[in-house]
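Open question from group meeting: does this chain pack into something compact, or does most of it stay loose? Before anyone orders reagents, we agreed to write out a predicted structure and look at it together. Recording both the input and the output here so the notebook holds the full record.
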Amino acid sequence: MIELTRINDSPLMVNPDLIEFIERTPDTVISLTTGRKLMVRESVEEVVERIIAFRRTISGGPLTASRESGHAA
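Structure tokens returned:
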């Protein structure tokens, strides 16, 4: 889950797997696969950065040179 901030300053946690697309309208609007739309304070770029960081966390982070070459770290 990623933490975002609604326009009214209340925090919320969003499952990034449910994000269908993100719009800049000029506010950031997140459309979920459920049909819900969320307007948040974070920019589109900030939301994308948080999604990337979340995915790195659950996948074990970026590959190191030793993992890429097949050697144990």
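Observations to bring back to the group:
The chain has one domain: 2-61.
The chain has a mean pLDDT of 89.
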